[in-house]
Amino acid sequence: LNQWALDFEGNLGRILRSIDIAKSKGARYRLGPELEICGYGCSDHYYESDTILHSFQVLAKLLESPATQDIICDVGMPVLHRNVRYNCRVIFLNKKILLIRPKISLANAGNYRELRWFTPWNKARHVEEYFLPGIIQEVTGQETVPFGDAVLATKDTCLGAEICEELWAPNSPHIEMGLDGVEIFANSSGSHHVLRKAHTRVDLVNSATAKNGGIYILANQKGCDGDRLYYDGCAMISMNGETIAQGSQFSLDDVEVLVATLDLEDVRSYRAEISSRNLAASKVNPYPRLKVNFALSCSDDVAVPTCVPIQWRHHSPEEEISLGPACWLWDYLRRSKQAGFLLPLSGGIDSSATACIVYSMCHQVCLAVKNGNADVLADARRIVNDQTYVPEDPRELCKRIFTTCYMASENSSQDTCNRAKLLAEQIGSYHINLNIDAAVKAVVGIFSMVTGRTPLFSVYGGSKRENLALQNVQARIRMVLAYLFAQLTLWTRGMPGGLLVLGSANVDESLRGYLTKYDCSSADINPIGGISKTDLKNFIQYCIENFQLTALRSIMSAPPTAELEPLVDGQVAQTDEADMGMTYAELSIYGKLRKIAKAGPYSMFCKLINMWKEICTPREVASKVKHFFRMYSMNRHKMTTLTPSYHAENYSPDDNRFDLRPFLYNTAWSWQFRCIDTQVNAL
């Protein structure tokens, strides 16, 4: 489900649609994503009693609905039990709540902060009475219901619940539940996209039933529910270590339902010959079993065909970049009720990659409409303000909702101007060429008039300070103009609404701080802010081959440059890697070691002297590591104002929630660097 934090109306509608689809396909049990009633990303709104109140109001609507009759429904919501807040699953059938199952292992790493809002249920295999609020009692006629760690025994099988993180925990509940005879494991997840992560989730689910036998079903949220994360679906059904059904990882469908018919006897025969499992099962501490007078199978189902295993198809990283951020942008655009995007298009790899993601989004919209998605069609018509419009051609849709803008200065080359113009023509965006020199001269002129001094670029004899300040002025004026054009471009074209400004700083530049604070990296959202330069280059190659965007060839072959210093004989003299004092490939390695390997300066040095022993002496490695940490710490303050970016990498430097660090460092790192020097001398 593509749920949205605090959108109780929309969330209820999507839950009911999923139940209708499940029933129409003959399902007898329906599982939804984690905290689907309120939406997973409510954050500190979980503290508010309103969030729990409205969740119970939605639950009452679900219990009353004819759609939920004769099917076991399993929904997620926060519940307050004895003044403690839990992340729960509420399982009900025919207007009766069967069990409220609180989460046992809370996700609290990376982007997850569940321990901030919830308490884990630490009473294993223990059930208590939960006193229902009045609005639920009126519907169910129940005063109390079971609350705790229990399993459901239907007339034909036994079903147990896991919630998201519990699958990833070393002591997952499905292990003991399986040994105790639970045959169906149901996992409701709120798992977000990270490049190259999907296979881990699939492997975990399949291995859960490979060792222990059983049926495992996993439901996940899909889409942008209000922040930097994109929940990437991949709902799945697995049996005895093999995938039976695979949901899409990226799509514009708000509701997607997987259904499978499986034979419980296959689970029983699979388990029967695993002697080690059966020996362990004889010693297991049993779970409380709540009897349910309902069967998941029918008495006359002998002739019903069962589903067969399939081979899971994984996307390549380039496909993931093409699809994930594109779907995230679409959700952001339609839910923010804006009329499109504006992108400062420089003719370099980063802004071109961002443009390609918007073009990919337009492809996805046209494809969804072609496949009969009425929701996408309605959203597209509202965005372009035309109730008869049918998006069929991605380029034509791009022209309506995507404005690109090349902002030239006297330091810009004709090459980048031509590259930007050609790419805009090929993707169909409404393209603007403008020159910022008059604005730059006016701002510098004010400074000169007040101080009586005129700063110069270093090639004309200016100091380093002057050189940097003059570059920053150009960059910041571009940001001011980007917002002006975003607000008024559609006005000049006689069209309603405003545009969201897109940023295009990649994850490596952000980490190094190779950007002007409050330049065009400052925007409303940034689809590539969590993606490395290396992956973006591969994505550009993918776009050349799959979207036939030949303009990207010259963009790929050009050295990355900020074009903020004067040209030499009409040619670019400034390059990113020379400015940074490191290559993008090196920067990517530093980023992974700093964040994923948790390496400080000394640990990073120790790892790199082995990794780079063929190409660098220890002294050279020490010099590189010191330079990186100086630059990183000097520029860390820029992360506090970083544009909200699509989270795609586990080495993201996002200061908001993922990578929590100080932003005022002692940039000398005297103790740490001395340890490195001692080691260099010893070597």
Approximate shape: globular
CATH homology superfamily name of the largest domain: Carbon-nitrogen hydrolase
What assembly state would you assign to the polypeptide chains in this entry? single chain
Structural class computed from helices and strand pairing:
alpha/beta
User: Spans with pLDDT under 50 lasting ≥5 residues?
Assistant: none
The count of β-strands is 19
Strand order of the largest sheet: 14-13-10-9-8-7-15
| Total number of helices | 24
pLDDT averaged over residues: 95
Using the CA coordinates, give the radius of gyration.
28 Å
- Helical amount: 40-55%
- The CATH level-2 architecture of the largest domain is identified as 4-Layer Sandwich
Question: Could you characterize the architecture of this molecule?
Answer:
The protein is of the alpha/beta class and 683 residues long. The chain has three domains: 8-291, 4-Layer Sandwich (Nitrilase/N-carbamoyl-D-aminoacid amidohydrolase); 317-444 and 477-579, HUPs (Rossmann fold), CATH 3.40.50; 581-682. Helices cover 42% and strands 14% of the residues. The chain has a seven-stranded mixed beta sheet. Helix 14 links the parallel strand 17 (402-408) and strand 18 (430-435). The longest helix has 29 residues, at 464-492. The chain starts with 7 loop residues before the first helix and ends with a helix.
